[in-house]
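Consider the following assembly input.
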Amino acid sequence: MASHHPVASAEIAVDSRKLGVWVFLASEVIFFASLIVSYLVLHNRVTSGPTAHEALTLTIPTINTMILLTSSVAMVLALAHLRDGNRRASIAWLLTTAWLGICFLILKAVEYSQHLHEGLTPSVNVFGSAYYTVTGFHAAHVAVGVIWILSVALGLRRRLSPQNDVLVETVGLYWHFVDLVWVAIFMVVYLLR
Amino acid sequence: MASSAVALPRVYEERGLLSWLTTVDHKRIGILYILGAGFFALIGGLEALFIRTQLAVPNNQVLVGEAYNQVLTMHGTTMVFLVVMPVLAGLGNYVVPLMIGARDMAYPRLNAFGVWMFLLGGLFLNLSFLLGGAPDAGWFGYAPLTAKTFSKGTGIDFWILGLQLLGISSITSSINFVSTILLLRAPGLTLNRLPLFAWTTLVTAFLILFAMPSISAALFLLFLDRHLGTHFFNPAAGGDPLLWQHLFWFFGHPEVYIMILPAMGIVSEVLPVFSRKPLFGYTAVAYSSVAIGFIGFTVWAHHMFAVGLPDVVNAFFSAASMLVAVPTAIKVFNWIATIWGGAVRYRTPFLFAAAFVALFVIGGLSGLFLAAVPVDWQVTDTYFVVAHFHYTLFGGSMFAIVAGIYYWFPKITGRFLDERLGRLHFALQFIGFNLTFFPMHFLGLMGMPRRIYTYAPGLGWESLNLLATIGAFILALGFVVFFANIARSLVAGERAPDDPWDGHTLEWLTSSPPPPYNFARIPVVHSRRPAWDRKYTGNPHARPVAEIAGENDRQEGEDAPEKPIHLPAPSIWPLVIAAGLTVFALGLVTHWLFIPIGILLFAVGLARWATQPLFPEAASHS
Amino acid sequence: MEAKAHKHPNYVLVGIVLIVLTILEVSVISLPVPQLPFLLGFAIAKALLILMYFMHLKFDSRLYAVLFAYPWPLALLLVGMLIWVYFGFRA
């Protein structure tokens, strides 16, 4: 049992801040799984008012999917440029990512206003409740991501360097995860309606 | 123990209120957790005494109707979220970094945020008593009782938001434990040598991380149902109250293991030390904990056997629940084998740990009864269930927690808890506990439902209820002795040396209480009992070798270059952020004006946190 | 952390593949084929691409992947069990 070659466990190449973000995201998997399963089991039990099939259209959500996927490319390019020592390009890509996130939110708001116009509200029926909740929590995560990205790109810009790329990498992990959640929501809510 | 060759760090101000409000030291944070849990234990205990007083005799009028429901709900919620979980988090915070030879937790400021969120969340929850009535739908908050139609007041809202705040605290502290235990272990301390308390704390952190989000989601849905008119749990509009039960128990059953696993870890530390033997079957005990960490997520619907799920679903959950008995029994047999043949010292920590084994077996056996669907149908929602979970949570968790406090008190304070008062405390707690909860098995079998606030005479329940109430007061007396013992020992307790129990693990290598930087030199670990192996050669017949703790490090050839020790700087911003969230929650329940104030505090705190360097000295060097 | 300037994967290509997969997803729902297997397949492919390339699991320490994998069986159990309870095997 007693080895004379102690393993320096503190020195394996794992960054504690990245690990923390990964563990947090793992926890978020269960949060969104709970919301999505609630949507799945409830959304067809409509007693009055619009159903999923009547209310949802594919145009805006498909564009929004493209926007989020593109924003993920922008985010990962921001990290690549920072690692290559190009801070200005990195910040430009970060701002691009944030801007795409804002576009997503604007389109989401347009979509919501169309729904409201057609009489789909959170309280009209159980589909409305579940739809607004699932997509709303995702949109809230996008909003938090935009604020986080802007704080890194503007507030902490002096600290960005190839040695300190973890600042961009952690927000990037979060941003890609929000993209991942949207992949699931796009399928469950819109494509399987 | 500090060797002169090591450059000792600048130690930040250690006195005064401000030093506590800004602390990021895992030891002080651990103490804050434990003190906070002790305060809430007083409240939760008083609530229990009110309940037992009301139920002492039939048709009693001490605490009836809605008031009884409030006290019952707050007793359960308090004991789970404000006592057992935080005191385990506190012991983990204090002990685990020492056990694994770390200078602090991985994220010291997040750690401080966690404790403030717990303390403020607990106060927020209890504030409901003063602001229009406490929650009264049970700690499980079953829909549709929690709907606006049936619970008009703000009690349920306090409950929803209070649990969200406490959930944030638990999630952050769990992320911290995972990173700390995985990344900050001393050289040589492989997972295969990790002390069992650190093992169970690690598994518990994962349980919290993956159980909490489902109740968090369910609480959001409930809040929207109450305030935005959504229909998640409203059957009239297609919603389903059973969805609440699924989401709640997907959290609620792992929660049970969240409260018992670290307790098992404490027992796995105490029994070997006081039996003067290594833990029997270390690997089996560690892997059993991991197994419970998985199986614990597959059993939630055994709380729902009576709601009319399909038989095959019930059968699945019944089988999965019985499966938990396997890793649990493995642990029990290993604890017994650890004591077997040992040179046992019957000190107070050992008494409580041994009692844990016995009482937890009783709770486990009645759990097997309840896992069988037909038996569950017979006794569901009776006092049999109350007896069962108090044997696991009080006879189990609480006895182990008390064992842990007696065990680590000398390390934390530098003084022993009084042994004679400790034995008196043990006798009162053991007798009082069994007198309170053992009769409840029979009350349940006789058909007494749980959650009722009174009962008619002539049902044959009178004498057992009276007995339980007498037991509860004896139990309470035991805790009076406990708190008196703590107060007395803090001032006049016998001075404890660095290694008062002849311990096995690293925390006994540093001074009592430890310096802010824990170890002047990080010890190198070569075995599962690093402290023991430094004192004794490993030859079972060898005589103890007198060595000063810590002195061994240099002999073991640590030729790592000297690095200055940097301590993380104190910070007020974790407290400000926690206060911001609490004020925000208060605004949602009471006056909207609190909402912008809360957001402002939160935003300012977060911005300052992000821009304040954790190690100002290190930052100024580079 | 990595000081050496390593060669980056072709992120733009990954992004294009993701967008093509999305177009396939949207197209498949108007085709007379069983949709669920296709949609699940496309969604899983997209998720894996994001995880492997954008979130660097393909290149990073295995520890991150292991920790992130832990909740998935639990989430699948929760979702699968509730679908079973609410819809039987029909879903």
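The longest helix of chain A spans residues 87-117. Ask yourself how this observation constrains the way the partners meet.
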